[in-house]
Here is the input.
Amino acid sequence: GNSVTQMEGPVTLSEEAFLTINCTYTATGYPSLFWYVQYPGEGLQLLLKATKADDKGSNKGFEATYRKETTSFHLEKGSVQVSDSAVYFCALSSGNQFYFGTGTSLTVIP
Amino acid sequence: GAVVSQHPSRVICKSGTSVKIECRSLDFQATTMFWYRQFPKQSLMLMATSNEGSKATYEQGVEKDKFLINHASLTLSTLTVTSAHPEDSSFYICSAADRNGKNIQYFGAGTRLSVL
Here is the structure.
């Protein structure tokens, strides 16, 4: 079956620190992979995506590379800001179905 | 990017009343819309998949008579929580899939339902 396993939080970092949030998946076929971000009290926003192996998605300084050999899609950012504080969800899509990880809460302190 | 509007953003109601939540795709046509429920500090739980012009497909354990879904057009799906009770209090989020098959879901901002 399809599933997403995401690093548990919460994660607390100082401003300008390096961020990694791990995400691994199991899937039948060739899924697309996504990172969504949810700010407090809001819905989910698409942060970045990758549709095939070795693709790198990037947006707002965040990056993630679709690694088929390790079935991973880890989210990274070189220097986080206070405004990056949010919950991050890793997700995969197969057909028209989405499967979400449990979310990782990130707090960035000044 | 594509925009999905969800309304209302917050609703407080008395136990026993029904609440309707609207989900609209503003700048694209959505053959399929999805309704999720999110409990505090948890991930999204898919409740049902809504297809334009046909009956919704509900996930196991979701009462279809409790959560009525109507997808009357390519840009509008509604979720009605009937006879709401305090245990129905939650954050409900809709999403819409672009009919052009881009395999991306665009999410509404969510509706916070509080049943007293």
